[in-house]
Amino acid sequence: MKLKHSNSNQRKQPSGEHLLDVRNLSVSFDLIEGTIPAIFRLDLVLDQGEILGVVGESGCGKSVMAKSIMRIIPQPPGRINSGEIFFESRELLGLRESEMRDIRGKEISMIFQEPTNSLNPAFTIGDQIAEVFRFHHRLSKGQAWSKAVEELHRVEIPDAEKRMRSYPHQLSGGMRQRAMIAMALACQPKMLIADEPTTALDVTIQAQILELISQLKRNIGMAVILITHNLGVVAAMAHRVMIMYAGRVLEEGPVENIFYHNHHPYTRGLLQSVPRLDQAHRELREIKGIVPQLNDLPGGCAFSNRCDLVMDICHKREPELKPIGPRHFSRCWLEYEPQRNG
Amino acid sequence: MLVKRFIRNKLGVLGLGIVLFIFLVSLMAGLFATHDPLEISISNRIQPPSRIYFFGTDQFGRDVYTRVLFGSRISLKVGIFSVAIGAVIGIILGSISGYFRGWIDYGILLIMDTIISFPSILLAIGLMAVMGTGMGNIIITLALICVPRFGRVVRGSVLSIREKEYVEAARASGSGHIKIILTHVLPNAMAPVIVVATIYVANSILIEAALSFLGLGVAPPAPSWGNILSDGRNFITQAPWLTIFPGIAISLMVMGFNTLGDGLRDLLDPKLKQ
Q: Residues of A near B (CB-CB distance < 8 A)?
């Protein structure tokens, strides 16, 4: 894999204060329709023990971002065009594949949306969890098995010994997701990427799984990137929120700011499109238009064709992500000029 | 659970019964035989079926019943070994081709499709003509014919399985490509392979019989079903038993393997899985 270290003249060395520091990451896919820029110049930092919520509509690049950090983007058709990913001061994109394999699952783990498809149907839950221990810690079969039982206890699966011998199809969705979490956390990773971990689950199970994740987070002290399109989940769990649109960060800030002092019209639109019980009289508002094709973005700001507050400059140039408060950023021309909309 | 479901499938059980029956017969051919399969008896040429010669005798006075019994050994050996060799090579090529895609996929596919594009019997005749008759050569030839068929099937399964989330999850937990192929992809791609195997055993047996019939297969006087059939074709009107009995044996074996394959396919069909 070749990497162009373009515009890295700014801050080449990791600051050391962040667990994860992603800079200027651009990822694209070469498809028949042309080159699709899935992620465009994305910056991201994550601190020890922090939960970062990543929110956005389908196809905004949330999962691509996660897979890029893990470096499991299929290449080709995927291509990492630029960027640096510092994890504990190590630059992941420059590592050899074998070094990366040691990091995956051990230091950075990932859980996926669909627990049914994320477990191998040909092996028992126990075999699959024990495998992680055997692979990363070179434990013997017996040791790995008893560690796996412990792990199942930790994710509160009842009858752990018995469940170890169950095949994935014999478990319910919630149990499967617990098993997935057990696998992901087996090596006590420093960072967990949860890619829509509860989307495929019942509401009651969702709450349990989220509670489990935050509890385990406290015990292990790991950092979490929580990818979701459910704003309620973000409000309950995250410390910081990143709003993504068309492969870009539009607004980023502490969770209270995003919910109560948001700046970006897209963030506002997202929040207004959530039904709320306590404001029954309020009209449910949608964001007009549909998500644009990534290879056919409007000129200037990517959100300009759907924005209610659009101005002339929005069609011409794309704004930078501008700091508007402590750890709070917004990518909008409204932050640059006095409001001139009518 | 799986066994119970298989037993409910009458045809599959019938196929399994036939296959097991032929296995036993070929294992204990010496026990059931009434004569020596190679013993020539000029005074008993072309005898109709009787109490001494159950299936009659051929133009050299050899007992057709005994020869058919021993012939099952050759047919089974050829069928099973050729498919086993073909399956192993086909699985390796198919999984490499389907998993890594790209130019290696094109290369392997090109070779496999070239082989598939020849009618198998024609290819077999050509190869046997070049290599010469003999058991080993037949097995090599039939294995070569099987390889692309297995390769294609395995590649198809692998293509779909490599996109499954558990493969991605395995990547995310640090597994390498070889490990993923062996532990995650292949175990989930085996069901169609087992079915194809049973069907190609039948196919190989048929081709072997055809080759022997044409004089390109197992060298006479060894009793292969194709040989017996070939010997009998000059007397087909005067002594139909020379062709009928080996013909029945071939049909029975092919039917056995095919119905077993169908039964297994039903059994392993994921849509029927609970």
A: 67, 70, 72, 76, 98, 101-106, 109-110, 112-114, 117-123, 131-132, 135-136, 169, 180, 183-184
